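Our working data are protein records whose layout never changes between entries. Instead of coordinates, the fold is spelled out as a row of discrete tokens. Here is such a record, shown just as it appears in the course material:
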Amino acid sequence: MAFFPFNLRCSAVILMISALLIALAFAVGHDALYQSLNRKPVLHVEPLFTINSIQLSDQQVYVSLGTLFAFLVKSCLGVSVSTAFDQFAWKSIHGQTTKIAVIDDLFSVLKHGFTLLDPRLWRHYPLSMTLAAMCWLLPVPSILTPATLSVKLAPLDEVVLQRIPRVDFATANFVNLIRSYERDAGSLGRQWMKVYSGPTPDVQRIVYGAATQGKVLAIDPAAANSSWLQEFHGPALVCGEVNQTLRAILTRNIATAINASKTNDNGSGFKVSSYTGYLYLSWAPAGEDPVNVVPFYQPEHNGSYVLQARQIGPDPWATGGTEDTWLSTASEPIQKRSPLSVFVASFPRMAHNVDIDNLDAALQNSTIVQCFLHNATYQASFEYVNGNQTVHVTDQKILDGISLLGGIEGVVSQNQSSFIQNPQIMESMAYQSVMDAFCGLLYGYIGTNIFKANNDTVPGYASTPSRAHTDVTSTILMETEELHQLKANLISGGNDSYIDYWRGRSMSSLDQPLTPLATTIQDLFRNTTISFMSSSLFQPNYSTTTVPNTNVTISTYRNIYNYSRLTLWVTYGIALGVTLLSVIAGVLVWLSSQGSYSSKFSTILRISQGATISVKLEKEDYSGFDPLPDHIANAQLRPGYGSQETTSEMVAAESRPSTELLSSGLDEEHQNC
């Protein structure tokens, strides 16, 4: 007697459905196991345990568990499909006369895969053979699904609070201050003054390095592979083209200076006038009025013009202002005047033969940019991957302008600690120092000699190769739209067979997109500002300043588990879907048969009861040994259940039933024993 529920009439249905549901549960468990491991590190420090010097790692355990789940899913699906196969196979031979060899092959197809290649079985039992083929293909998911868990090298992110590179502009390392005087101020006590004399060499080194490379200098990261976000205050340049009124004032002054540079050469019988033209100019305004904003001035009003000597301006002291207008005092720590600014101009038409009598044409299509110094708030992201640095300024807010501070004045006897310790004063002078060093690169000119022949026999104009009196040529500003074409004017050598030969064998610079001059100056100054984080001199002094730590994401590359969930569920989904169709078909067969079949011996015994066979079995056939004798293989068999017909050719119909032959044979064998 079978135990519950396999003693029920619907046992096959229960077995098919329950096995399918259990397979689904194991598939979900397989997915849950792998999903719990996804993106988790593989432990290589120590094995989980060691048995007889055999070390078992966590990776081996998890792969074995995955293989176990795949095996259980495959086994349960196999039970469902094989049970459905039993329903179809037994149903298909009922009421039909079939060769015993064919029935043998049909019921052995689940054990011998090569039987699937028998076209005779596919012709007579297509549904049963389809189920058998499904049964043989069910191991495929058990091969594919364990492989959905793999190991790969990937970064693992960990967020920690720690110190990051910063820049502290409230430090004396930016500014050179010299002692101007210390004198008696009567009732006020002794008065002192420190005068600004320019940026420190360390500031110049950072500025020159960033401007030459055109990018943020290498900053020591918080960790080898790390990233963080930082917000800080710093200087910023705001650049733009000058308006038409100011352009007219500036170009008129430049044309006047060119005309005033005239020199005559009457040697060799030729009358030639020489002028100094300008392809590039950069200067700082002395004042804010039109007279002092121009690049050239007459120092002694003797007819010759010289370029403004200062690198930053406007400077109230240079235009007749008093000390109160440019000094930081206790009553007015920060001067509120026009921001510091610098002019940068490009005159590309000066590179060609210039008509000195029509300088307006040569000064057309010029670019004149003015940049103002402001305080700004930066938001920047820093990322380091295997030593490669990436810095992006995600946001920049322009705040108030920074005016020139010529120095600091105070009184010794008075308690001026709040004034002396005011960080805004030092920050303002640090910003001024950075701009001073930056403008030191821009300041100067790229000139060219313009010749005018005054002899009728040699008419016309000519120009000689340009010469640079500025350090701007060593910066990336030469890769801008306005200055890029000036590089050709700075290269001498002409065109001849010698130069052409060696130029043809030399590397040429790669064509890169050119950027506008104003935008490039702003970006370069911003990169310079951030580059101060690369030097320890400009870091905060943590012994005197409290600076909060920052969330730093540290990435460490380790072997992690990588789970391909889609692959697992596509594989299992196909297997479960095919099995579901098999179960549905099996249930339909069960409904039509009104009973369950199995491949147990009792099922064979009962179905063979009343079966008719077209040959008479001999005593030696009762052993059941392989191979099957040919006369039995070719014999026709008709199961007795479900059919009331007999045929005249059935020898068994005229003799005894096959079960009687079977029982008598067993009795004889027992007696012989």
User: Anything to note?
Assistant: The first helix runs from residue 11 to 37.
